[in-house]
Amino acid sequence: MDLKTHQDWLVHFYKQRQWYQYSPFIRLNFLTEEVGEVSRAIRALEIGRDHPGDPKMTAPELTANLKEELADVLDQVLIMSRQYEIEPEELLRASEAKLQARFKSTGRD
Questions:
Q1: 3-state class (DSSP) for residue 14
Q2: What is the pLDDT of residues 71-99, one digit of tens each?
């Protein structure tokens, strides 16, 4: 599946549940929440968590959790980009162009 196909599916899914209409300010709060969950997942993978409320997880379960949280972040970015009528491929091109321009004087590819 490509990003555009997933974005189309995601927008349809969100609209069915009345989640799409939230403003970008509210959506930004959702994104911030998801980034926090990525942080927690990486901490659990890298140094562990010693919290009585957290179940013990195996390494594959911790990795699966990180994938899930990264996907949640991606979904919030895709929803915001659709709300601003920015295609996912434009985000990829903008990222590459910015990094290439920023580091072209370093002589490293």
A1: helix
A2: 999 999 999 999 999 999 999 999 999 99
- Half-sphere exposure in the Cβ direction for 50 (13 Å, CA): 1
- Cβ neighbour number for residue 33 with a 10 Å cutoff: 12
Helices (H), the chain: 3-16, 24-46, 59-83, 88-103
φ and ψ at 41, to 5 degrees? -65, -40
Helices (H), 18-58: 24-46
- What the block records as the tokens of 48 is 């562990």
Please give the model's pTM, rounded to 2 decimal places.
0.88
CA distance 109 to 72: 31
List, for residues 3-28, the tens digit of each pLDDT value.
Answer: 999 999 999 999 999 999 999 999 99
Backbone angles phi, psi at 86, to 5 degrees: -110, 120
